[in-house]
């Protein structure tokens, strides 16, 4: 059988939510209006592929883990399919990150999920 180009994608469940769930553990910067004191065994900086897996493994091992992420927390309804929104909101340096001598550009994500959000 010849596959048909343009066929509707398989019905893969959408893991993102239009709105965060009620028990969402993510605290965004705009929700922090005073000093926030958290008690943790481990703090992981960065929520990308490396940080997220590390956090999951530590949590499964019974550690209390806090993950810090400098970028935004974006869910399904935020994604517009437009580069004009995506580069400034989902990439380090608005997509313009490069080596110090500017000879090599570096696309790197910035947000909860890190580069996995854009790869
Ligand atoms: C466009 C694109 C396509 C890709 N396609 C593929 C693919 O097809 N297959 C594949 O295997 N890989 C792909 N990759 C690569 C893959 O996404 C990365 O290798 C992987 O995500 C790196 O994981 P990481 O945890 O090291 O860093 P990242 O996922 O980049 O996460 C780092 C996180 O740390 C945060 N952070 C950095 N500094 C601080 C700080 N001081 N304080 C708080 N937070 C901070 C950043 O905002 C970011 O969210 C792609 C990458 C890009 C950009």
Description:
There is one protein chain. The chain is α+β, with helices and mostly antiparallel strands. The chain has helices at 49-60, 83-90, and strands spanning 42-45, 65-68. It is globular and about 45 Å long. The relative contact order is 0.17. It binds flavin-adenine dinucleotide (FAD). Residues 45-51, 68-71, 107-111, 114-116, 118-119 line the site of flavin-adenine dinucleotide.
Q: Which regions contain 5 or more consecutive residues with pLDDT less than 50?
A: 1-7
Q: Can you list the strand order of the major beta sheet?
A: 1-2
Alpha plus pi helix count = 2
- Residue fraction in strands: 5-15%
Q: Give the termini separation.
A: 31 Å
The profile of the biggest β sheet is: 2 strands, parallel
Annotation, overall tally of beta strands: 2
Q: What overall geometry do the principal axes of the alpha carbons give?
A: globular
CA radius of gyration:
18 Å
Structural class: alpha+beta
Bound molecule types:
flavin-adenine dinucleotide
Order of helices and strands: EHEH
Average pLDDT taken over every residue:
86
Helix content: 10-25%
């Amino acid at each position: 059988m010849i596959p048909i180009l343009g066929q509707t994608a398989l019905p893969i469940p959408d893991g993102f939510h239009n709105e965060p769930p009620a028990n969402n553990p993510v605290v965004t910067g705009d929700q922090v209006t005073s000093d926030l004191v958290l008690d943790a065994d481990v703090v992981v900086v960065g929520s990308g592929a490396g940080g997220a897996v590390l956090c999951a493994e530590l949590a499964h091992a019974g550690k209390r883990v806090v993950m810090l992420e400098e970028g935004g927390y974006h869910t399904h309804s935020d994604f517009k399919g437009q580069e004009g929104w995506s580069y400034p909101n989902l990439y380090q340096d608005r997509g313009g990150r490069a080596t110090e001598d500017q000879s090599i550009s570096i696309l790197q994500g910035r947000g909860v999920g890190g580069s996995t959000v854009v790869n």
